[in-house]
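Troubleshooting log. The previous run stalled partway through. Resubmitting the same two chains, unchanged.
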Amino acid sequence: MYILSRIKVINVAFYIIMAVIGALAIYRIIFYIRISKGVENSKEIDEELLRLLNEEE
Amino acid sequence: MIERKLVKLKEFSHTPYSYEKLSYCLNCNTYTTLSYKPCISCGKSKFISLVKQTELITKKHYAIHNILIIMAFFTAIAFSANFNQILLSVFAAFAVLALQIFVQRLYYKKHIQYTLARVVIEDIGKMKEDIEQDLQSAMKDFESENFKEAYESLREIGAIIQNDFIRELKIQCLKRFELRKDMDLELDTLIVEDYNEDLIGYIFEIIKLNNDLITKKVMDYIVRYEEQVLDERNGQAIIINTCEAMLKSKSYIDIYKDFIVKYIGYMRKNRLIRLCSLLASNNKPDWQDLYEETFRVIKEKYRGDADFEAYL
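Second attempt completed without errors. Output:
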């Protein structure tokens, strides 16, 4: 009984880890795709930097 | 009378984006525009460009994400109860890692842009403070009459911080140099809001060396302060040269035609020929005053001149 329950715990832990790997991968891929769509181009970043650096306090 | 010194200025690199002028000290974590000098804060020269820094941050993120997958993989191996589960974890980890590396490579450039935008927003206060330090160092050079060093620093800072204070300091430095044609001179970036006698003096020097530096911004300035410029010692020469520079394009003539009309009589012959050819090839009703005045000047000054025969 004890050995069986140990195997079950290990099995559950294993599948949880597998799920974590999958979730990590999905999260990162969604993150990369999302930033690639919302990212500003170099000109916009440059204008923003100049605006922030030159604005009066 | 200020004595002008012969100087050899450090080459100024013109970058497409001003953030490329910013560097980051790896030793003391400060930003600077003066990466050619030892760091003002720590005295070391361990600089990397801001773009390089964002690349490093991005690569660090990638490494962390990949290591997380590898760690999860080893944990899965440790918890595997049989050979099938080991195989499953090997397959899953490699598939996820391969997919993540593929996506990272695919979006690498976009991710750098994203990191750069974030660095700009998060570190803007620090950047301001650190550039202020650069400015203080340039002002120290200026006060100790090291005008060459001061100008070189101000030019780098001025690529990012655009205000009249820096422009006026640069003009003050430039009026102490013997200007030469081979120097990488600036003018457009020195135009201040108010009237500045020293700037007018500098414009006169520039006109003698390189008329191509007379851009629209300079033209606007001269037109705005026409009367004050005329009161200066070389005022008329500046006005006429500016008028001649306005003949570079039809769009300038459209904008400044009323200004040009007043000085046609003072233009050099070759420039007047240029104006005639422009007028002859563009029959615009709103250039009527220009036609009439040019015609009058030619008849008065160049009657019988073969170069103008075609236009009379």
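Takeaways: Residues 186 and 213 of chain B are 7 Å apart (CA to CA). The radius of gyration of chain B is 30 Å.
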